[in-house]
Amino acid sequence: MMSRFAVKAAVLMLAATFGTGTAWAAESLQDVMKRRSLSQQDLLAAAKTYTPSGKRDEFVVFSSGGQSGQLIVYGIPSMRILKYVGVFTPEPWQGYGYDEESKDILKGGWIDGKEITWGDAHHPAISETNGQYDGQFLFINDKANPRVAVVDLRDFETKQIVANPIYKSEHGGAFVTANTEYVFEAAQYPAPLERKKFYPLEEFNEKYRGGMTYWKFDRKAGRLVPAQSFSVELPPYSQDISDAGKGPSDGWSFTNSFCSERYVGGIEQGRPPFEAGCSAKDTDYLHVINWRKAAELVAQGKAQKINGHNVLSIETAVKEGILFLVPEPKSPHGVDVTPDGKYIIVSGKLDTHVSVYSFEKIQAAIKAGKFESKDPYGIPVVGMRDALHNQVQLGLGPLHTQYDSKQCVAYTSLYVDSQVAKWNYCDGKVLDKIAVHYNIGHLMTMEGDSAGPKGRYLVALNKLSIDRFNPVGPLHPQNHQLIDISNDKMQLIYDMPLPLGEPHYAVAIEASKLKPGVRYKVGTDSRTDKDHPGRARAGEERTERKGNKVTVFGTLIRSHITPEIIEAEVGDEVTINLTNLERAEDETHGFAISAYNVHASIEPGKTISVKFKADKEGVYPYYCTEFCSALHLEMQGYLLVKPKGWKAVAKKDAVKSNYTEADYRATLKRIVDTQAVIDSVVAYITSTNFKDFPDVVSMVEDATDQLGKIPDAKAKHEAAAGKKDWDNANLWAEQVYQYQVKAADIGLRAKTYLDQHGAKKVK
Ligand code: CUK
Ligand code: CUA
Q: Would the CB of 632 count as within 6 Å of ligand 2?
């Protein structure tokens, strides 16, 4: 270690190197601009995005994590990443996939009994009330393994995964209806709807199908209800992105398709590839479905069952007048209903136009029975001319469209041109264009797919970042570029690398609409929102053995795990339930056992369980994995897995420590000094209006809780001292000191909080 003198000398030497100290003078803004080669424009962008310490963002973004199967949460305008939420893929930090409760959630997404540990997450959707984001739930789909997940925005945890009972892939999900009655997903690559059934490709037209699934959402339970969900069978046209109607078009859904040619490739058989055959025709079909009426038909028993799931056949859908097609230009991609619900904007990947369809015109044609033809499956086709409001030439490779708070203003991504086009869909005028880097897929404005877009910002979700960031090998990060859209001209203001899969789509909500909790009711199973059967309160901790089953009911609180020793025999089935008794904000404990592949994240109030077979004899330390207090490293214990029939030779006390009376007296002195600190903090807090701050009130409760444990430990050290048992006297006195330290720690945190939040003196 450096002596105090050595440190001083080093500082002096450093000062000498920099001369008389002018180098230490503060740099001016001009100096920094010069040193970092920043322009006025850069400074403006910085001022628009820089978010000082302690300040929060205006909007919160939920981005799909693509092949990571996760959800990425970040803030706007700072672009600071706030969280990754485990959804389709295990996520160790959250214990997701390593504790029993979350394993059950992932199990909901197994397909035909097969465990699936990844997902290709594409489109997140926030729950809506009257077409406006309400901030309660989020849904996201998995394209590879057709599934939909539900995330509760009260705790940002995944609560449910449902596997589609009839598809092999899907893409046009998750989209919600205007009041979140249904969450829907469209199939993508056609396949037979029956499970585990083979039909040759020659029977593609007859046996392969697409479809549209409507998952019923029970908002009160916060879960999708498979028994009340249904699908509409569709031709094998490779259905793509979808959107729900709103306002006048509420009750309808719209879905694109990109291979109505029904082409089947096969390079190895000498056939031209899929890409040639699937883009041969000039038009594909927009599918227009009356889902509200479809739901009624299902309720009337008009659906057939496939794999136990309600499916309305094409025949029934046509007969009942709930399914229509409208031609759309060449290989379309995005379909986006305008905020007022009057228009449906379709982009064609291989067309330079976007097509604006009028819902009113489509309805008029349907009512008049005015169809230009029927498709090979008998579905009526509304003529393109009879459905179009206008077509606007925007540029190469239009993909997706989002809306502004300003009337009629839309933004469309241009994949090939690497641009965003701002245009007016009412009069068809192009207003502005901006270059992005590079090859934009989706784009997103604030609440920009709802009935009430908020304008302000746009994020370009670019597919390639090429030369934008420091090189990190051949696999580059994705690039989310933030664009200010509050003025006539768009301005690029931030580049954010995203190194976690390819995010396809993102949604942004006003931060004020989110009200996540900071703690659970003590003993909650966060994945079911119910009381956990393994919960325990302080003093109720125990270990039960029945046959070869060992069950622990334990607790966690700074800085110990109860129990600290768990005994088992080889072959036992061990279940460890743990409840975090903390009330303080952000006091999470983790739990890990060496070599048993279990991990849990236990936030205040939560109860989890981990389960494993103690199949290896040995000594396995367990510990808390979150740095939760000064004595976090001491938050530990031992799992003892003994050979069968093992007997203790003689019952011995744990290792002797040989403390002396002097040690005990020194500890007592430390307790007195610490108490003085606590008293002064308590005096400070109670001299303010702290009761007006709920966060402080809960910190005070927490500290009081710690102090409340002292009398018991005090009685023990005094009793031991009475017997001159200095080991136990000193150790129990040490424990008193630990309770004091924790109380003081929380007290000081409360004091800082009060200082920073302008608490007033009341006495
Ligand atoms: S898709 Cu990726 S750019 Cu899955 Cu929404 Cu259009
Ligand atoms: Cu609890 Cu570290």
A: yes
